[in-house]
Glycoside hydrolase family 130 protein (Anthropogastromicrobium aceti), 361 residues
Amino acid sequence: MKIERCVYNPLLTPADVKPSRQDFKIDGVFNCGVTEYKGEVILLCRVAESVICKNEDEVCIPVVKKVDGKDEIQVITYRKSECPQLDFSDTRHVSKRGEKKSDILNLTSLSHLRIARSKDGIHFEIDEHPAIFPLAEEESWGMEDPRITKIDDIYYINYTSVTENGAGTSLISTKDFCTFERHGIIFAPENKDVTIFPQKINGKYVAFNRPVPGGIGNPQMWIAKSPDLIHWGEQRHFCGISSDTESWDDGRIGGGAVPFLTDKGWVKIYHAADRNDRYCLGAFLLDEKDPSIVLAKTKDPILEPQEKYETNGFFGNVVFTCGCLVNDNKVIIYYGAADDKICRADFELDDLFAAMEYIDI
């Protein structure tokens, strides 16, 4: 399938972002929600920051805690030489040595959400300050991977809210990207990669979500319904990982961009990873009246990490989208590359449909 990466990629890098504190450094700006507002393209970016450690033996962890009724950042410091029982090999977290991923003790960075704006969809100016900063109760370990769904005149922002109790999904709404209303957790941990459809279907809101089983099962896509965007139920399994151990999607699969409606049905761009954590993008074509029905899907990735800015970075071999724009026959994907920068790629809808394999139902 023909897909054109923007010649200006990457559009945003850590060097373009001002830390929220003088003792912080920017590890990444990536995985952005996307929409248009008052003639501008809005990217609601995930910005990951970490503490500047002056001693190589130290690992400093930022967390949000409530102190005297106020939320504030506190720094937890580990000395590697004094903690032989801990594993510091993964730059993203500290865990117990030899234990499972579920035994992560802390994340090494704290993510917040920040707005970038552009008149042409290519050259972006990112705000100097966070638009939404984590709260201790719901996001003491950070806010990650926002998606923006516009319904009527309200922009709904769902994002991964992380605490020591796990990664859930929370909801915020805005009408102007200046003031924000919090609606709390809508999918309890561990559940992430939520994407909400931009209109009701058969009288109910619909969303993809990805629960992560701790025992039986794998990280796979489910579909849920809601009367009000807050209370979700009628959960049904939607799609699992490939049974082919050589496939690009045999590790995990999850929601990517917010679905959009075409004359053929709903198009859902999603992400998947193989067992080596190499992330690529694919797409489904779904029935307009029942999006749990898959009409067609891409067999091969529509976008995979190939350029240096996708293969090298904070966590390499990753392309990951949280949003796209559709203008007539053109689809514009904004995606995180290597977990530290934001890029753009364009393709034609007709090319996407031609790359799909249709399913007899």
About this structure: The mean pLDDT is 95. The radius of gyration is 20 Å. The longest strand covers residues 24-37.
